């Protein structure tokens, strides 16, 4: 994996946004995999600034989502599709018809999971997939001990995850118990994986992902299997990396024309 240590979240967002801009220059209709949560917001805001400045054209870009709640009605404001429409597509001016995701409101959820994998394949796959990481090393909703070969599927949310997400709903009772998530095997099919982690709370998970053994106990460690995986971390999230100085020197020595 390529490890890039940046001063703070804003610097990480700008670096990744620049890499996405380079990708869209080379391939204007690239498929971008996006994620929800607070961690990727600096990326989206940096992209928005580039679009408003006229230095980035996203009019032909395609977008796909990483996961979705099961059971929320179409158009529910807290469905991940609606969140991504508000936070990514609308600010960047990407039409909704260029956005695909799993159908969490389908009657046949298992069928919807299979259909989404097939839709991704039919679209030519994902060019760049953005990822966050949980404090337990999960990516998407692939919790510890998820199969490293798993496909898009339904997963049960832990009670702690439901409690954490309750702030977005009127009450805990409204938080869904299940989600559809790209599996680790599905995620690994993207051509470039970019994981952003910020804050001291993520330091142990980052260290286990990067320097620990490949293990289903740390789902993000599956990135070690990928031919083009980039992990961007701020100084706080890099605090437990034994090779932090090596990673800093390696990235500093890259040619100036190279992006991540």
UniProtKB/TrEMBL annotation:
Catalytic activity of the protein: alpha-D-glucosamine 6-phosphate + H2O = beta-D-fructose 6-phosphate + NH4(+)
EC number: 3.5.99.6
Top-rank lineage group of the source organism: Bacteria
One annotated Gene Ontology cellular component of this protein: cytoplasm
InterPro entries: Glc/Gal-6P_isomerase, Glucosamine6P_isomerase, Glucosamine6P_isomerase_CS, NagB/RpiA_transferase-like
Keywords recorded for this protein, A-Z: Allosteric enzyme, Carbohydrate metabolism, Hydrolase
Sequence ranges assigned to domain Glucosamine/galactosamine-6-phosphate isomerase in this UniProt record: 10-225
Active site: residue positions: 67 (proton acceptor), 136 (for ring-opening step), 138 (proton acceptor), 143 (for ring-opening step)
GO BP annotations listed: carbohydrate metabolic process; glucosamine catabolic process; N-acetylglucosamine catabolic process; N-acetylneuraminate catabolic process
CDD domains: GlcN6P_deaminase
One GO MF term attached to the UniProt entry: identical protein binding
Record-marked site positions (Part of the allosteric site): 146, 153, 155-156
UniProt note on regulation of activity: Allosterically activated by N-acetylglucosamine 6-phosphate (GlcNAc6P).
Pathway: Amino-sugar metabolism; N-acetylneuraminate degradation; D-fructose 6-phosphate from N-acetylneuraminate: step 5/5
Keyword Lyase tagged: no
Function: Catalyzes the reversible isomerization-deamination of glucosamine 6-phosphate (GlcN6P) to form fructose 6-phosphate (Fru6P) and ammonium ion.
Protein family per UniProt: Belongs to the glucosamine/galactosamine-6-phosphate isomerase family. NagB subfamily.
HAMAP family to which the protein is assigned, alphabetical: GlcN6P_deamin (MF_01241)
Protein's name according to its UniProt entry: Glucosamine-6-phosphate deaminase
Organism: Streptomyces tateyamensis
Gene: nagB
């Amino acid at each position: 994996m390529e490890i890039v240590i940046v001063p703070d979240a804003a610097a990480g967002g700008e670096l990744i946004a620049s890499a996405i801009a380079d990708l869209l220059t080379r391939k204007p209709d690239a498929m971008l995999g996006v994620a929800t949560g607070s961690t990727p917001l600096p990326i989206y805001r940096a992209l928005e600034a580039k679009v408003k400045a006229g230095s980035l054209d996203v009019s032909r870009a395609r977008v796909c989502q990483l996961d979705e709640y099961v059971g929320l009605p179409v158009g529910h404001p807290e469905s991940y599709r609606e969140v991504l429409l508000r936070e990514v597509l609308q600010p960047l001016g990407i039409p909704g018809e260029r956005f695909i995701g799993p159908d969490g409101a389908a009657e046949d959820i298992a069928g919807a999971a299979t259909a989404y994998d097939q839709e991704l394949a039919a679209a030519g796959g994902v060019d760049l997939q953005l990822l966050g990481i949980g404090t337990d090393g999960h990516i998407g909703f692939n919790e510890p001990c998820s199969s490293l070969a798993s496909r898009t599927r339904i997963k049960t949310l832990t009670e702690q995850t439901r409690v954490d997400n309750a702030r977005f709903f009127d009450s805990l009772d409204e938080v869904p118990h299940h989600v559809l998530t790209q599996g680790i095997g599905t995620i690994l099919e993207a051509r470039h994986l970019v994981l952003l982690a910020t804050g001291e709370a993520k330091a142990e998970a980052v260290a286990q992902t990067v320097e620990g053994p490949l293990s289903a106990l740390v789902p993000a460690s599956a990135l070690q299997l990928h031919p083009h995986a980039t992990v961007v971390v701020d100084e706080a999230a890099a605090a437990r990396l034994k090779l932090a100085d090596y990673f800093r020197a390696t990235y500093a020595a890259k040619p100036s024309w190279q992006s991540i």
